[in-house]
Structure formats: C-alpha cells, structure tokens
C-alpha cells in the first residue's frame, strides 16, 4: 500500500530557514502539550546560521516521519499514519552497522507475518560529513538474470542492478532462480560502497497457491511480506535523511496486478491464462482480465493462509475515504494522486474512483532524487572508501548473523 514504483520527483522545497519555520509551526499546532517553541526556534535558527542545518529532537523526528506518511500522495493506506514505529539510528555511521539495523528493521517489521509499519532513520548530511545511502529500491528485491535465449530469469526490473552488484563481488546461487534475494548495498563517505547478504531468517516470504486451482502451486510463485522502500529521502523541515527505509504492508494488487502481472516484470498472465484454458486469440475474450483476477485471488488467499498481513483494494479504498473524512474534520488538506490511489484492478468498483482530490504538495514528505532512482534499478559505479577499513568493520552483525560483506 506504499506503492511499488518510485514517488514522483518533488520540486525544490523552501530554503532551510523557511522550511524549518513552517515545520515548527505545524509541530506546535498539532502538539498542544509542546507549548510555545520560541526558544527552540531561536536555537534552530542559530544552529542553521552556524552549520547550514540543524538536528531534530527525537519527538520532532517521530512527528515529522509520521506526517511525511500522512502527506504521501501516492499511498492509499494513510489511515494508519499515527501507528508508524519510528526507529532513530542517526548516530549510526558504518556501513555494516547500517546494514545490521536494516536486518533488524525487517525482523521487527515482519513480526512473524503480522506486519508493523516501521521507519528506520539514519544520519542526515552535515556540513562536513555525508550521511549513508542505500542503493536498493526496497530492502527485499529479487535478482534478474539474462538467459541464453534472450529472456529473463527473475525480475526484469533489476537486471542492471543485479549486474552491478555482481561487479561488486556478489555471486548468485549456484543454480539461480526466479526469486533470489539481492544483497543490500550501502554507500558511506568513510567506507565507500559495500554489499551485505540478507539473512534468510528475515526474508519472510509466502508461497502462492490458489483456493480453486490446484495447478497454481506448480508455477512456483512467491513474494515477500514487507515492502520496505529504501531509496527515498525523508525530508522534515528542510533536513533530508537520505537513508530512511520505511514500510507499511502490501495491498494485494501491488503483487498480483503489478509485480507478477506487468509485462516488464514477471508477466505471468499468459501462463495463467494458458493453464486456465482461456481463449487468448483476441482481446475481446477478456482473457487478461480473467487471469488477472485469479492471480490476485491467489495472492490474497496465500497471505491469509500464511497469516501474513495484506489488504484488498476494496477494503483499503473504503479505509482511505475514512482517512479523508478524518483529515477534513481536522481541518487539513489531504493530497492524493488519483492515478495511484485508484487500484489497478476494478478501479471503477471502488469508491476512490468517483471523486477528485487535492494535489497541493505538503511537507514533511518523502522525496526521490534522480540519482537515487537510478541507483535503485541500475546500480552505480562503486565508490572507494575515504579511509582504510578496520578489522571490525561489520563482518558479523550484532545479532550474531554473518552479513557476508564484500
């Protein structure tokens, strides 16, 4: 429900002084217990004048991260914005330590399948030090391999990313498959570019079956339960946190109507239709529509059987209107991108289809820069470290799991 493709590139926000002032006005307005923030504002202005930026308190970070979700125009699941768990890792710098916290993010957010909305915020850039970056679009993504016949094994979206991490030293399994989990790639100023294998214990996946079609299991399809977007920046009051992986839970159509169905992804509709015995000779048989419905039924059925959190597009559409009503009652605008809020299956049957939405951009928010977008699908040349690595630079995680850094 966070969306499978990147958010739109957002226009430049106001200068840091203006952005900070606007943020603190919002913070004070929505937190009655905070009281007047005149002294805090004077401190922040002095900090900006001295360093070009400022440091949020924990309370400001938590509030800002939750409001950024509330302002995310492409997310239909914002009814739950107040429930976002905010993990403050701004003191973490080393790439192994960042990867370690990402591993724990997945463990915490997965919660045995009962997914918890979570964000882990790492250090922002300072005047003399660059914060960490995560290459991956999401913490869990599947590799794509070119085959000898010109086809693709795995996820075509990540063909170039897979080739980039192989150039860094990562090696796929001896027998590559369609759902090989890619390593995390962390870039820091001090250590350059390093990759880290995700322990299988934190990659919670669901094998897909169908309630009425026994052969469906033979397709060997599966998907992970935590959609943790990891290449977007969290921007709060003029401060940009370039590494801030965050997740909600999946809406079924994100998997069944996009990841597994899109022609430039796993493109499973022709095979599902063939196995169903559908007439695919022309479009008017609506074979794609029929196959798409059954693929989405399989996703929802399988996640329910696995007791893994997921939502359907009809339920979530109703919940989004509840969110809109609450925001209107609170006197707030609720920006929404119609083309993303309306689900990719049976859009006209959902209540979100039949209305217009505000399009004003609000802050705090999540931003995707061009460089981060490119890294997320294509990778990038490795950056060398600025200092020699030390012997204890994160070969093992604090949880006792080998991370297999390059």
Q: What are the salient characteristics of this protein?
A:
33% helix, globular, 406 residues, four-stranded mixed β-sheet, 11 helices, disordered C terminus, three-stranded antiparallel β-sheet, alpha+beta, 12% strand, 14 strands, disordered N terminus
SSE layout:
Elements: H1 16-30, H2 38-51, H3 58-70, E1 85-89, H4 95-110, E2 118-122, E3 133-134, E4 144-146, E5 152-154, H5 159-168, E6 184-188, E7 192-196, E8 205-207, E9 222-224, E10 228-229, E11 233-236, E12 239-241, E13 246-247, H6 252-259, H7 269-276, H8 287-305, H9 313-329, H10 338-341, E14 365-367, H11 370-378
Parallel strand pairs: 1-2
Antiparallel strand pairs: 2-13, 3-6, 4-5, 6-7, 8-9, 10-13, 11-12, 11-14
Q: What does the model show?
A:
This protein is of the alpha+beta class and 406 residues long. 33% of the residues lie in helices and 12% in strands. It has a 4-stranded mixed β-sheet with strand order 1-2-13-10, sandwiched between helices. A 3-stranded antiparallel β-sheet has the order 3-6-7, covered by helices on one side. Strand 11 (233-236) and strand 12 form a beta hairpin. The relative contact order is 0.18.
Order of helices and strands: HHHEHEEEEHEEEEEEEEHHHHHEH
Task: Note the beta-strand portion.
Answer: 5-15%
Sequence stretches where pLDDT stays below 50 over 5 or more residues: 2-10, 389-406
Using the CA coordinates, give the radius of gyration. 22 Å
Form type:
globular
User: Total number of β-strand segments?
Assistant: 14
In spatial order, strands of the major sheet run 1-2-13-10
Tally of individual helices: 11
The mean pLDDT is 92
Class derived from helix and strand content: alpha+beta
Q: Helix content range of the residues, please?
A: 25-40%
**Cα distance spanning the termini:** 33 Å
Largest sheet: 4 strands, mixed
